[in-house]
Amino acid sequence: MFCDDVGVSIVTLDCLIRERFDRPLRPKLQEVLTVIRASDDPELACQKVVESGIVGPDLFSSSHRRFGPHEPGICIQPSDRPSPAVRPTSLAMVIAIAADEDGILHAESAACEFAKRLAPFQAIFSGGVVWYLTENAFRKSYPFETTGLGQSFFAIGMTLTLCLDSAGIDIKDYRIGMPSERMPLLVHRALAAWEGWRVAQRLDLSVTEDVWPVDRYQFKRFRELPNPFAPLLELWLTGYRISADFNDKYPAVHLYANPSDIGI
Q: pLDDT digits over 197-236, tens only?
């Protein structure tokens, strides 16, 4: 993954995320719009983009991928968990997914890797992904993007902060600029933690303190584990957003696509 590359600087990554956050590329948008019509129902639209070869045959029939309901103009909060469907229930959802198949798959891969790296800290992931088509619900309350990522994510971040502090390093020193619509608070903090983890690895720091459910006896040095923040940043670079609880009640990952520029 790009964000695991030791040659990538925090300045470069900061600039890229400020540009790409919540902005999917959708390179096949015009191609999709030439194949389907506004009068098509979602099932027919799925069939058309598959038969035309624009997307692979499994994009709308995967066993792990589900689609949340979509109503134009309605923001779905990360705390909401409306019942997903096996297939998209709106034409706009079909367009958004089909127009960026590579980005969708990349986002899912990054989300799965993120869950994998949190697994040692009791993160539970079913392997399921639910897609929602909704605007960023926190855009108007800049800069407080409050999407939850579960107890495991909070704990590993706080553990890192405490251990860096014990070594005389303030993780806030790695924050660049101020939070904004292009770099919400959660993302701002995650980028600093990504750099902090790299510093802890380079200095071969020990895990001297922990926050539940992190167990410092499971891994004693930061170099023993891959950077858990890297796949999260990788996901945001695709232009999609994430929320996840990683617990028994909500073990699936929820991904969000901005509906702007879809053209229907």
A: 999 999 999 999 999 999 888 899 999 999 999 999 999 9
Query: Is 240:183 a contact under the CB 8 Å cutoff?
Result: no
Q: Which two tokens stand for residue 204?
A: 């071969």
Q: Do you find a cis peptide bond into 251, omega within 30 degrees of 0?
A: no
Cα–Cα distances (Å) from 237 to 191, 192, 225, 232, in that order, read: 12, 16, 22, 9
At 173 the three-state DSSP class reads helix
- Cα distance between residue 138 and residue 264, in whole Å: 24
Backbone angles phi, psi at 89, to 5 degrees: -105, 5
pLDDT tens for 48-90 read 999 999 999 999 999 999 999 988 877 777 777 788 999 999 9
For 60-78, the DSSP string reads: TT-SSEEE----TT----T
* Structural contact between residues 144 and 181, judged by C-beta atoms closer than 8 angstroms: no
User: Which pLDDT value is given to residue 143?
Assistant: 47
Measured between alpha carbons, how far is 244 from 153 in angstroms, rounded to an integer?
10
Residue where the block lists tokens 């993120």: 114
The rounded distance, in Å, linking the Cα atoms of 119 and 113 is 10
CA–CA separation, 112 vs 126, rounded Å?
Answer: 10
